[in-house]
Amino acid sequence: MTQPITFDAEGLASVGALAVPAGEGTVGAIIVVHEWWGLNDDIRQLCDRFAEAGYLALGIDVYGGQVATTPEHAMTLVNEMKTANAMKVVAGALRALQNHPRSNGKVGITGFCLGGGLAIAGACSVPGLACAVPFYGLPIRDFQTFSASTPPILGHYAGVDAHCDPERVKTVQAKANAAGCSFELHFYEGSHAFMRRADPTVYHPASEALAWSRTLEFCKPLLA
Q: For domain 3-223, which architecture applies?
């Protein structure tokens, strides 16, 4: 079960949800960035799943404690959020995980929907991240600053997605690859948010299982 944690984000206190794997010894860590709904139970459960797989997992909150329950509220929160401020939270989470007594110092980042875009933005702008795994999200253009030093990225996207157009995703992948960044890309059956187990209108079990297995394989170097 996740536990609340407070960490410093460029001088501001930020609250997250930390899941710690069983056992002893040091392990790799993963920052988990929420969907447009905010840091809710779905994200906490994903942190628990990463912990069961052997990782420290920290779900961060880029909304300052707000959680949406309607699409209208979620859209308001998305529009109010500033990516630059979210990167301060990512950087603070990175430091908190690197300093955790169970951490081996290696930290990756993943995210879903809004969080998928912020995971890529973090890979491009927060030094020290070891890898990024975005799910069906892209950052704004100002944070698509790929280079040969950008950590490797594994992207999971729906083949048909009104919220995150596959052709736009391919364009961003090509931009990353042209800059010398490794960006591996996979498209799946189902629609946007196919990983969201709590929502039967979008959840696609086969796609979720495949994307999850690929994610754990990709993140294995964090555990070494």
A: 3-Layer(aba) Sandwich (3.40)
